[in-house]
Amino acid sequence: MPEHSGRAGELYVWFDTEYSDLELETAWLLQVSALITDASLKRVLPQEQDVRLAVRLPDQAALSPWVEQNLPDLVQACRSPGAVSMDEADARLAGYVDAAAGLPAERENQRPVLAGNSVHADWWLVRRFLPRFLSRLHYRHLDVTAFKLEWQRLHPGVEFDKENPAIIRRYFPEAILSGSGSRHDAYYDVQASAAELAFYRRFLFREGM
């Protein structure tokens, strides 16, 4: 039985996607990534079990001009033999959550919480494409963007530099990053989001209020 199965509702499933178009009703998933931490932002599974998948593009999938221009390497990966089907991505994500939390609790409020930046968009795509993964998740989300907005209101001009790998590692020491920032990479972004929450916990929240 997974070590954290008795308190799965205290786990965060850090999740991010890249997709083919900003119109979520018609967009196709290009990449899904996930890692799971406890409430203290410590990994609960080894790094090599993190999920980082390119999703196979069907022939009929249309790409926005922005995606074609800015994500050519990802698009190529989605058309390569290494890309996985949507069903396989769903199964891999569901299995990853089960490895950390055990089989899904009957009550949604006892399941792990989906976390990330602007995670409502990712949740929309989860509901469209990833039903098994969806069945493992809490009905609430942890959206780091809410804290970002409050931070920017209180400290205009002072931002968390998510594109700086050294900053990410400072606040999330278990991050696995390349030598330079990796914008528009879902795996980079899940780690950046965990680091960003740690930053806000240190500087935005105050004890005893």
Kindly describe this structure:
The protein is an alpha/beta fold. The chain has a single domain (5-203), classed as Ribonuclease H-like superfamily/Ribonuclease H (Nucleotidyltransferase, domain 5, 2-Layer Sandwich). It has eight helices and five strands. It has a five-stranded mixed β-sheet, sandwiched between helices. Helix 7 (165-171) crosses helix 8. It is globular. The N and C termini lie far apart (38 Å).
Quick overview of this protein structure:
By secondary structure, the protein is α/β, with parallel strands linked by helices. It contains eight helices and five strands. The chain has helices at 65-70, 72-78, 86-101, 119-129, 131-134, 144-154, 165-171, 186-203; strands at residues 12-19, 29-37, 51-54, 113-116, 141-143.
